[in-house]
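Our consortium's second objective concerns turning raw sequence data into structural hypotheses that experimental partners can test. To show how far this objective has progressed, the report includes one record in full. It was chosen at random from the queue rather than selected for favorable results. The single chain below, 147 residues long, was entered without modification.
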Amino acid sequence: MTFVTQEFLHRPEEGQIGDCLRAGVASVLGLELSEVPHFVEIGLKRGDRDQEEDPGMEWWNAMQAWLALRNLECWGLENLELVEHSKFEHILVVGKAERPNGTFEHACVGTVDGEVVHDPHPSRAGLVAVSGYLLITKLGTWASISG
């Protein structure tokens, strides 16, 4: 597996939104960074929000739409209870990352046990706190287990 480094660091004071999620998705799916959209940036544009504001759920909708074109979907999980449904060897581990310009929400690549194995930020500093997990799986899997 090739892990991808993010292209854009999170610098909201300069109007730049980090693309750790994009790099994490590319890593999990085995794609080049250029093949994956910058979901958070798209979400901010769709939501007509200033880049320093919370992007809300528009980034989620953009990511789900893009994944659906590939017959995939993403689940947001608070714990690792359902990771056996993962279609891939890795998942995304999300939480807080400490940077010189503040503490930010961040996405890293982890094992299905929740262990961070790759931080897409060039510092490779990882997370200071985990808040949840993003699991990419085959489209329709959630409906089949929850219905």
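The partners drew two points from this record. The longest helix spans residues 58-68. The beta strands are 72-77, 90-99, 102-111, 116-118, 129-138. Both points have been shared with the crystallography group to help prioritize constructs.
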